[in-house]
Amino acid sequence: MTSSITTASKGSKILGLTSLVGFVVLVLLAFFVTDPDIRFHPETGEEFGQFDAVRLLYLHVPLIAVTYLAFVVCAIASAGYLVKRTFWWDSMAHAAGEVGTLTCALVLITGSIWGRPVWNTWWEWGDVRVMSTLILFLLFLGYLALRGAFVSPQRAARPAAIVALIAVLDIPLINRSVEWWENRTLHQKSTLSELKIEDLTLFTLMLGILVALLVMSWLILHRFRVAWLEHAEFEQGIKTAIEERRQIDNED
Amino acid sequence: MKRLFADIRLITSKDLKIELRSRVLINQVAPFALIILVLFGIALDADQKSLRNFASGLFWISVLLCALMAISRSMTIERDDEALVGLNLSGVDPLAIFLGKTCAIAIQLLILEIFLGVGIILLYRSEVEDFWLLVSTGLFACIAVSALGTIFGFLASGLGVRETLLPILLLPLLLPVLIGATRAFDDALGVAAINGWNWFAFVAGLTVILTTVGAGANYLLADN
Amino acid sequence: MTHLGYLLAGWGLSSFIVLLYAFRLIKRGAQLSKRVPSEHARWISSPKQNSG
């Protein structure tokens, strides 16, 4: 191994390796071991169901779980920052917000790809969860844009924390309003509850959530360390600038 | 308490006075609103029936776009000579600054709403079926927009990219207000058979929540 | 298998995006750590680097 420092540590390497192995097992289970969703109409005996498209849910559902978790972490860390005012909380909020936005985008992508064969549409305006997730994604794009607009990470911390908290408070309101807006909703009940959840299906879903959690932790950990190093570099830059200035003053 | 109201009035009248002198609202924002109405009409192929059906949505989108301009403008007058810093140091209660600026923006938006309302009646041939529903929804929704807008204006003040940042921060958060106000207007203009007063109640609730959230956020921002 | 195209697109795209992001994080971290003294990286636990 080279002696150069990176964002990796022994713990993060183990975490990364476990995630990879878990992911491979998940793919095997989701694609080859679990059954497709085929049901028979009680009267006509016709085949219906999601068929193999159901295998997308083993990815989609875990992504939803970690997206919400990441945003909760972001909100808690933002509140933590406002109380403690330390850089640790701010970096954590930033890392969780960014990773959550990424997984939220994946939720929308996988949902859309799943919706095409099952709901027969890439995009369903009539579904509350679909719409709320999109708005959530847009909110956090704004959050990241706000962070990016500040040159100094310190100055971004407080506005960003406040925006994250307002966004999280607004989520229930958005959910309510979208739900009332659509009194024509097609899919009120959870699509998952229609599936007959067998032991193996449930196990694969739980494994999916676990793997997604591991991957998310790995990403947040590394994003956090990058933020930490960026902060250190910024501080160093200021220090160097002051020293250079001092030298110029001494020469005068 | 008395002091607070006096301070709010002071800030509001200061902003409105600047507005009256510079005439940005009348010379720039109002024509912009008119242009939006005309553009919608042309883009939707000037089909009178669909224009009438979509009038409430078009009205509220126009209000939101104009609100962005008004908020930006309200922050610009503070940015020159670092006036916001001076204001904060002057001993005026931060809550009064927030509420004062919110009031000033809300009053401007209200004037614009009247202007836009006349516009949709004349241009889109909308017919008013429930005048008081229209007025009360317009009033509450514009307070909600102004309160949240003021906070995000403060958050992004001092940033060179404020004009582009404000819409992406503010508009998704205002989605519930847009939905509520549009539905209430749909009923008031007689294009949808729904209970508009229920939607008004929703908008009024949102106004209270968002103004409180704004005041809380303002406290966090001002506190050092 | 039905819907194979959708399945590959969904799983493939997601894995690709996450891997790309992870790779960029590692690269950015390596870049930054060249410029920042190691005492800032407190997750480094090997004694050799801590003493440096």
Give a verbal description of the structure.
The complex is a heterotrimer of chains A (252), B (224) and C (52). Chain A has helices at 10-33, 57-84, 87-118, 128-149, 153-181, 191-194, 199-251; strands at residues 37-40, 47-51. Chain A is mainly alpha-helical and 252 residues long. In chain A, strands 1-2 form a two-stranded antiparallel sheet. In chain A, strand 1 and strand 2 (47-51) form a beta hairpin. With 224 residues, chain B is mainly α. Chain B has one domain (2-222). Helices cover 84% and strands 0% of the residues of chain B. Chain B is built from nine helices and no strands. Chain B has helices at 2-22, 24-43, 48-79, 83-89, 94-123, 131-156, 162-173, 175-188, 196-222. The radius of gyration of chain B is 18 Å and the shape is globular. The two termini of chain B are 23 Å apart. Chain C has one domain (4-51). The chains are: A mainly alpha (252), B mainly alpha (224), C mainly alpha (52). Chains in contact: A-B, A-C.
The end-to-end distance of chain B, rounded to whole angstroms, is 23 Å
Query: Helices and strands of chain B: which structural class?
Result: mainly alpha
Widest sheet: strand ordering of chain A: 1-2
User: How many alpha or pi helices of chain A?
Assistant: 7
Calculate Rg of chain B over CA atoms. 18 Å
The amount of beta strand of chain B, in percent, is under 5%
User: Major beta sheet of chain B, specifics?
Assistant: none
Span between termini of chain A: 47 Å
What is the overall number of helices of chain B? 9
* Number of domain units of chain B: 1
Succession of helices and strands of chain B: HHHHHHHHH
| Quaternary | heterotrimer
